[in-house]
Amino acid sequence: MASYSANTKREKKVFDTEDDVAKAMAEYTFNLSKKFCKKRGYFTIVLSGGDLVLWLKKLLVPEYAETEWSKWHVFWVDERVVPLDDKDSNYKQTLDSFLSEVPIPTSNIYAIDQNCAALGDAKGAAIVYEECIKRLVNQNIIRTYKSSGFPQFDLQLLGMGPDGHMASLFPGHYQIKEKASLVTYITNSPKLPPKRITFTLPVINCASYNLMAVCGEAQADAVAKVFKDDFNLPSARLTADTQAIWYLDKAAASKLPSECL
Ligand SMILES: O=C1O[C@H](COP(=O)(O)O)[C@@H](O)[C@H](O)[C@H]1O
Fold first, then answer.
1. Which of these CATH numbers, 3.40.980.10, 3.90.180.10, 3.10.20.580, 3.40.50.1360, describes 32-256?
2. Ligand 1 atom showing the smallest separation from residue 189 Cα
């Protein structure tokens, strides 16, 4: 199993504005899509909810017209267990702002199970999502991390909340300790809505590339704690197989200790 003890060097780039972060995230995604589509014929990309959903629109510019959308397989690192047409659904938000604009085959977009979502069955949704990931590993669409059996996604685009949570792994909640499952669930999330499913930390850290994009002053304290290695914050535990990089705007980076600048 992958280690999550911060042995992959945490990298960062600071940009002037949120718009610059979004543009750089799009460029990073485009380049990795090109690399993996050429190498394997697939690109497995994991998305988050939150602000990032809007930043994905930067991929819709003519510069990236050659993106091989038909080779994309899209997952969510976490999802709120609400009906798929609910305004809080990460799937719906991403569909409305980005996915509906690009020709990714519908069968390559892996939303959570709609029955579990409609019933608010978080445990069931986690089980079904884990089965889905395992099936795609068996089909060689998702690679595995150094023959550990853990899935290895090509790229994950992540966000962090002001409390330092990433995906739906929240500070002080036991889900961060889960090591055996691929997908777990929470029914008392401190951020609403309360029922969510989430990739576990080993799965998150097995990805080839992890890009954490964080903007705004509200996140500055948490960013500073992460870069001081405060592992109480789930986001401080982010690593990756090849690269774990943080894209920050100046506001989010404003409280970084001077030795980190
Ligand atoms: O609830 C969630 O929050 C985090 C962070 O969102 P942000 O708006 O502060 O960027 C997000 O990454 C996660 O996917 C989402 O479910």
1. 3.40.50.1360
2. 1
